[in-house]
Amino acid sequence: MTALFALATSLLWGLADFGGGLLTRRAPALTVVVVSQSIAAVVLGAIVVATGGWSEAGPRLWFAVAAGLVGPVALFSFYQALALGPMGVVSPLATLSVAVPVSVGLVLGERPGPVQAAGIAVAVIGVVLAAGPQVRGAPVQRRAVLLTLVAALGFGTVFVLITEASTTVTGLFLALFVQRVTSVAAGGAALRTAVRRGAPALPEGGLGRSALPAYGFVGLADVAANGTYAVAAQHGPVTVAAVLASLYPVVTALAARGFLRERLRAVQAAGAGLALVGSLLLATG
User: Fold this and answer.
1) Are 229 and 157 a contacting pair, CB within 8 Å?
2) Are 1 and 242 in contact (CB under 8 A)?
3) Which end of the chain is more exposed for a tag (fewer CB within 10 A), N or C?
4) What pLDDT digit, counting tens, does each position of 224-259 carry?
5) Looking at residue 210, what DSSP letter applies?
6) Of residues 150, 152, 158, the one with CA closest to residue 230
7) Quick check: 171 and 47 in contact, CB under 8 A?
């Protein structure tokens, strides 16, 4: 179950990141964060009401609030980095987010076996190669690197917090709802401040109804990924769940290949293969 849900997390995050990066090339990053997370919050609110999730309210929700404060910073930084730099700069560095939950797992006493340890090493190397690292270049690329490092730290922190926010499925829906409401409030406040300073709140021509499904997909895929990761981490070793969930750059690179016709270089194809081998080792170890 851990491997299945963690791999689902990679798929969902990879597609959400691809969509968020495309939207940020047309609209301000804060707007993308606030609109996509608002749609996700509305859907989650309906699910919480339908499932009676309010009965799961308790002190653990403070972890969800904390995740909701960290999340917008990470998303804003990551979407800006995706808009500024090529995926070869952003994707491999984003995998550093795995260091946070893996470190927490090791501190708590988790010790992966020899096969799983080999799988972790192979998967991480594969992810970095699949993203096609390109770290030399213009100042805009250095800015993308800095933003991605901030995003990676934030994502890793959210991994840890959302895992602690609930112990049941209905409680998870409530925790994700609280996280999204907090994210919208924090992101909305930041967007208001940016607008007061003269930054545009909307792209030229406005959002448009035709764009709302894309924003909805990004927000819902992101929240679903948080949910599947929480399930994966609660039902197995955090070290395994975190590494498998970090395979999302492979999905982003493949999506760019399929939708944008970006060509995969030999090193990227080899990296994707190594990531798959590492996943199999983790799943079977």
Assistant:
1) no
2) no
3) N
4) 999 999 999 888 888 788 878 877 877 877 787 777
5) G
6) 158
7) no
Say yes or no to pLDDT of 177 above 50: yes
Q: From CA 246, how far away is CA 216, in angstroms rounded? A: 23
Tokens at residue 250, please? 């492979």
Question: What type of residue sits at position 189?
Answer: A
* Most distant CA pair in the chain, distance: 56
Q: 280: burial class by Cβ within 10 Å (0-12, 13-18, 19+)?
A: middle
User: Please, what is the average pLDDT of the chain?
Assistant: 81
pTM of the model: 0.79
The number of beta carbons lying within 10 Å of the beta carbon of residue 170 is 17
> How far is residue 30's CA from residue 132's CA, in Å, rounded to a whole number?
27
Cα radius of gyration rounded to whole Å, the chain: 18
Q: What are phi and psi of 209, to 5 degrees?
A: -65, -30
Contact 86, 143 (CB under 8 A): no
**Which of the 8 DSSP states describes residue 137?**
S
Q: Is the dihedral of CA 122, 274, 153, 228 positive or negative?
A: negative
* Sequence-separated (6 or more) residues with CB below 8 Å from residue 55: 170
**Cα of 275 vs its chain's centroid, Å:** 18
| Count of beta carbons in the 10 Å neighbourhood of residue 181 | 19
Residues 6+ apart with CB under 8 A from 276: 126
